[in-house]
């Protein structure tokens, strides 16, 4: 539930303030590297607007900024997560990262026009919501269509869904471009789950 995520980020926030360490990076480093490599391979212009959906501690955005990307936005449902990512952003001196508290299932009107959307675990978390998970997944796909430009790219890393299931979930308005190679185990989710990483293009 959102409140338990908030509690987790509260703990990370205290830990960061005490140690200057950004704490656990969900899904580990390799998924960030994979996303950045793909963007570089595609020669995605560095000023393309990028949205990190469920930014958590904001570390992915910091890595993108270090790789030269200049138009970065991170949203999270959890105010504590946004506080934490603001602290991480300050420590790294990355003033070109925009951070805002947003519920992606009811995004504010100005959240639009992105060329790249990245999701690492947020769709998973929404999928696990016991309260109308199917409806929430459909709303997620609608929100994604609204914020992502036509021809824009959506990079999703999931611990809960297979490639086939994700193709089914995102068939309305998206086509798959490629599957990215992933390690076989995901320690963020249940041990032994494999990680799926896909790139979709908005039709």
Written account of the structure:
The structure is a single chain. The protein has a single domain, classed as 3-Layer(aba) Sandwich (Rossmann fold), CATH 3.40.50. Strands 3-2-1-4-5-7-6 form a 7-stranded mixed beta sheet, with helices on both faces. The protein is an alpha/beta fold and 203 residues long. Helices cover 40% and strands 23% of the residues.
Using the alpha-carbon principal axes, give the shape: globular
Low-confidence stretches: 22-27
**What is the CATH class designation?**
Alpha Beta
DSSP summary, beta strand count: 7
- SSE sequence, one letter per element: HHEHEHEEHHEHEE
Beta-strand share of residues: 15-25%
Q: How is the CATH topology named?
A: Rossmann fold
Arrangement of strands in the largest sheet: 3-2-1-4-5-7-6
Number of helices: 7
Largest sheet: 7 strands, mixed
What is the helical fraction, as a range of percent?
A: 25-40%
Task: From the alpha carbons, calculate the radius of gyration and give it in angstroms.
Answer: 16 Å
CATH architecture group name: 3-Layer(aba) Sandwich
Number of domains: 1
What is the CATH homology-level superfamily? Vaccinia Virus protein VP39
Keywords: Cytoplasm, Methyltransferase, Nucleus, S-adenosyl-L-methionine, Transferase
Protein name: EFMT2 methyltransferase
Domain Methyltransferase: 48-178
InterPro entries: Efm4/METTL10, Methyltranfer_dom, SAM-dependent_MTases_sf
Structure in a nutshell:
This protein has 203 residues and is an alpha/beta fold.
